[in-house]
Amino acid sequence: MGRFLLFISIAFSIPSERPSFAQHAQDASAVPLKLPLKPKSVRFAAIGDNGTGTREQYDVAAQMARLHQRFPFEFVLMLGDNIYGGQTAADFKLKFEDPYKPLLDESVKFYASLGNHDNPNERFYKPFNMGGKRYYSFKGANAAFFALDSNYMDPEQVSWLQQQLSSSSDWKICFFHHPLYSAGQFHGSDVDLRNRIEPILEKNGVNVVLSGHDHVYERIAPQHGISYFVIGNSGQLRFHNLRPSSQMMKGYDEDCGFALFEIAGDELYFQIISRKGETIDSGEISRKANQPGAFLWPKMRRQISTPLLGGAS
């Protein structure tokens, strides 16, 4: 399955779809933290479709930096569309280096995956920690992370994924741009990609998949033992773009935001926060021992009670 992309190296500005809420943002110290901060846990954040250079991106980045003081996450997963538009040094400064400077100054690492608006040469940009590769993996304590290039899922990448997932890590987390499941009206689920790789993810005991592309937040009911998140609203939003779906456990399409995660033993805790400092979603996923080929259902607990579509009627 290939996607042929045309990259035009001109700078442009993506118009904001909603007004800035920066002046109404809560101080991070006022945001109730729903993550346990357990000793020796793996702590990370996730953002998607962030590289706009707009006020929305800067608001989200500022909220992340403030929360980092209370929840010191070690790294950030980037779910694609990292740099919209031009690819000049000025673009990387405007759309990455400046908004995330407080985190970069604290030695927080960013691990990028490629989206449909990204130039493949971004893999050579050192702060994205891709090592010059379209797809790669890394480990943190008892968790293994796999960055995929969902723009072009060629046979070589599929073979690499099968080999890499045979590792014995307790937690296996894949992140890539195009969602296998999404109720977003603009894009929705990438069914072709799902048919190609979901059997591999299921067979090899993948626990969590993070994607972007649709500029909303979604948490999907576990599918074939895998918990799916869509976090595509870290730089721009498609306001009220979610449609009702029986597969969606939580959806939010009213503001931009980001995700925080903590892995401690057999538990993964998550908290989704808007750029205004409001908790959109939170909960806990319990991991069962990875058994290749087994049908595993993560146990979901402590989910906050909120409207399905983030207040949208």
Total number of domains: 1
Mean pLDDT: 84
Strand content: 15-25%
CATH topology annotation: Purple Acid Phosphatase, chain A, domain 2
N-end to C-end Cα span: 36 Å
Low-confidence stretches: 1-24, 289-299, 301-313
Written description of the protein model:
This protein is 16% helix and 25% strand. The chain is α/β, with parallel strands linked by helices. It has a single domain (42-301), classed as Purple Acid Phosphatase, chain A, domain 2. It has a seven-stranded mixed sheet with strand order 3-2-1-11-12-13-14, with helices on one face. A seven-stranded mixed sheet has the order 4-5-6-7-9-8-10, with no helix packed on it. The chain starts with 41 loop residues before the first strand and ends in a 12-residue tail after the last strand.
Write a concise synopsis of the structure shown.
With 313 residues, the protein is an alpha/beta fold.
Features:
single chain; 313 residues; alpha/beta; Purple Acid Phosphatase, chain A, domain 2; seven-stranded mixed β-sheet; 5 helices; 25% strand; globular; disordered N terminus
Note the topology:
Blueprint: E1 42-47, H1 55-68, E2 75-78, H2 89-97, H3 101-105, E3 109-112, E4 136-140, E5 143-147, H4 155-164, E6 171-175, H5 191-203, E7 208-211, E8 217-223, E9 226-231, E10 248-252, E11 257-264, E12 267-274, E13 279-286, E14 299-301
Parallel strand pairs: 1-2, 2-3, 5-6, 6-7, 7-9
Antiparallel strand pairs: 1-11, 4-5, 8-9, 8-10, 11-12, 12-13, 13-14
